[in-house]
Specification:
Structural class of chain A: mainly alpha
Helix content of chain A: over 70%
CATH architecture of chain A: Orthogonal Bundle
Order of helices and strands of chain A: HHEEHHHHHHHHHHHH
CATH superfamily of chain A: MetI-like
Helix content of chain B: over 70%
Structural class of chain B: mainly alpha
Distance between the termini of chain B: 20 Å
Strand content of chain A: under 5%
Shape of chain B: globular
Shape of chain A: globular
Oligomer: heterodimer
CATH class of the largest domain in chain B: Mainly Alpha
CATH topology of the largest domain in chain B: MetI-like fold
Number of helices of chain A: 14
Number of helices of chain B: 14
Number of strands of chain A: 2
Largest sheet of chain B: none
Radius of gyration of chain B: 23 Å
CATH architecture of the largest domain in chain B: Orthogonal Bundle
Radius of gyration of chain A: 24 Å
């Protein structure tokens, strides 16, 4: 017995975890795939009805679905771009000799580890049109107050701002770790050749940082596409459907309207989008010579 | 230590830049703390923004009227359960993946982090309803394990790769089986890694909103859901809401301070050392 275990230790040690992932993740995704070809309202009396590609066809004619896709990409592209630019800037500032650097680095972790629902609700108070500090601040500057999260046009930028606040420190700390491990020689050579700070940043720092930036942006992008907590806690996709990204729309279709078939079709599309973007960037990263 | 450098304008500007950004990033937390001590009247009056009266009534009402003690308990049970079972399944798997270079399995674990959680929520809801497991610790712990276990594996693979494997060999010479050597020799020297990955896994479970939103009910409602329910009342009790937010975030922030070195490495799956 002991011998058998020792000979097959690779499988004895990994099987429980693999079986768990298969039961809790692979099988449910398969079930969702099956449901996406059926019409069902989760009722016990009428079982799922086979409708072939009906759900998918309806989704692509559904304006709300197209809108939710656009909102997801809008959110991800703007937030991740801003976080990368600000994060690199912050990392460069922090890479200098700073008094109390250890404490500063620790405190910068707080936005990303704090419970997202609580974070969202703090921002609901900050953005509150009558009593929030966002408008108090604007009025001090002599500018008119805004409706922020309850405004159709400002709700997405306001949500993106929360995301930037929450995740810029992560990019900054990852880039900082990358900066610290850069070799010193190229900079000395560049200084001797008379390069200025900007030139050594664009010609030396950025190219050397590329692998680190890849990792940071990939991780951030995967999570930004899936953002749920912040949006649901603050606006639930509103006002109207102005901040209803695909993740929120899937939730609404499934658990508020009980359109199980259509929600499943939407989730399959969402699943495939996130997975293919991830695989694509991982492959790009491999080509850039970075291992996971 | 580096030698003392003369104070230059550049160094002053850098310090101002860093500390000003830090202040801006911490401002929402300060705001939450401040508001949690204010009465509703003080919060509604924006002319007295910084008036504080060190009033604990919001905290008392959160515990007395909204029975937060039971929500804290629920979050605690689910977090501890999901972390312990995550360790039991995750540690041997991580060890094996690290030792035998089972990269395919490593990839499967990565996929578990990439897949949107909502794509298995509908099946879970249907299956757990059939099994009458909605609103039980079992369904919550099982679902949260899909967050904790891949995370623990992910953090522990690079950790186990760094351990000297001669130790296991010598234990084997002394007559230990591989599982015996793993439990008696390898796990005890992996303490720091296990502690950090457990703390972070617990934080992820504690923070989880989406799974609990569907699977928790009146008996097992976790803190994020309880805090979220605050805003469904007709007039929002802002002071209470902020006190509740302090209660839910404070433990996480304190835990994070203990393992700050490993958080970045953990969040990035060991691809970057913090």
């Amino acid at each position: 017995m002991t011998n058998w275990i020792d000979r097959n230790i690779k499988w004895v040690f990994t099987m429980p975890a693999v079986i768990f992932v298969a039961l809790m993740m692979v099988a449910p995704v398969g079930y969702t795939f099956w449901l996406s070809f059926h019409e069902w309202s989760m009722s016990n009396i009428s079982p799922p009805l086979w409708v072939a590609f009906q759900n998918y066809l309806e989704l692509f004619q559904d304006e709300l679905f197209i809108k939710s896709l656009k909102l997801m990409f809008y959110f991800t592209i703007v937030a991740v771009t801003a976080e990368t630019v600000l994060g690199v800037g912050l990392a460069i500032l922090m890479s200098q000799n700073i008094v109390g650097k250890g404490l500063v680095k620790t405190l910068f972790l707080l936005p990303m580890v704090a419970t997202p629902v609580a974070v969202g609700l703090i921002w609901v108070l900050i953005y509150e049109p009558n009593i929030g500090i966002a408008n108090v601040f604007l009025e001090k500057l002599g500018l008119p107050g805004q409706e922020w999260l309850t405004s159709q046009s400002l709700v997405m930028p306001s949500l993106i701002f929360i995301d930037i606040w929450e995740w810029t420190p992560m990019i900054a700390l990852i880039v900082l770790a990358g900066l610290v491990s850069l070799p010193k020689d190229p900079y000395e050579a560049a200084m001797i050749d008379g390069a200025n700070t900007w030139q050594s940043f664009t010609k030396i720092t950025l190219p050397l940082l590329k692998p680190t930036l890849y990792s940071a942006v990939l991780l951030r992008m995967i999570d930004a596409l899936k953002t749920f907590d912040i949006i649901y806690a603050t606006t639930q996709g509103g006002p109207g459907t102005s901040s209803q990204t695909i993740n929120i729309y899937g939730y609404v279709l499934g658990f508020q309207y009980f359109k199980i078939g259509q929600a499943s079709a939407l989730l399959m599309i969402f699943f495939i989008i996130v997975l293919s973007i991830s695989i694509f960037t991982i492959l790009l990263r491999k080509r850039a010579g970075v291992n996971l | 230590m580096s030698r003392k450098k003369p104070i230059t304008t550049k160094s002053i500007l850098t310090h101002v830049g860093v500390y000003l950004s830090l202040f801006l990033f911490l401002l929402p937390f300060l705001w939450m703390l401040l508001a949690s001590f204010k009465t509703q009247v003080q919060i509604l009056d924006t002319s007295k923004l910084f008036e504080i009266t060190a009033n604990l009534s919001n905290y008392l009402s959160v515990f007395n009227e909204y029975s937060f003690l039971s929500f804290i308990w629920n979050s605690f049970v689910v977090g501890i359960g999901a972390t312990i079972f995550g360790l039991i399944l995750g540690l041997p798997a991580a060890y094996s993946i690290a030792k035998y270079k089972q990269e395919g399995l490593g990839l499967l674990i990565l996929v578990a982090r990439i897949v949107p959680g909502i794509s298995f929520l509908i099946p879970w809801f249907i299956i757990f309803s059939k099994l009458q497991l909605i609103d039980t610790y079992t369904s919550l712990i099982l679902s949260h394990m899909l967050v904790t276990m891949p995370f623990i594996i992910w953090v522990m693979i690079p950790f186990f790769e760094g351990l000297p494997h001669e130790l296991e060999e010598s234990a084997r010479v002394d007559g230990c089986s591989i599982p015996g050597a793993f439990v008696r020799v390898m796990l005890p020297i992996s303490g720091p890694g296990i502690v950090t990955s457990s703390i972070l896994a617990f934080i992820f479970s504690w923070n989880n909103f989406m799974f609990s939103l569907i699977l928790a009910g009146d008996n097992t409602k976790t803190l994020p859901i309880a805090v979220f329910n605050f805003i469904s009342y007709s007039e929002i009790n802002w002071g209470g809401l902020m006190a509740a937010s302090v209660i839910i975030t404070a433990p996480v922030l304190i835990l994070a301070l203990f393992c700050q070195k490993y958080i970045i490495a953990g969040l990035t799956g060991g691809s970057v050392k913090g």
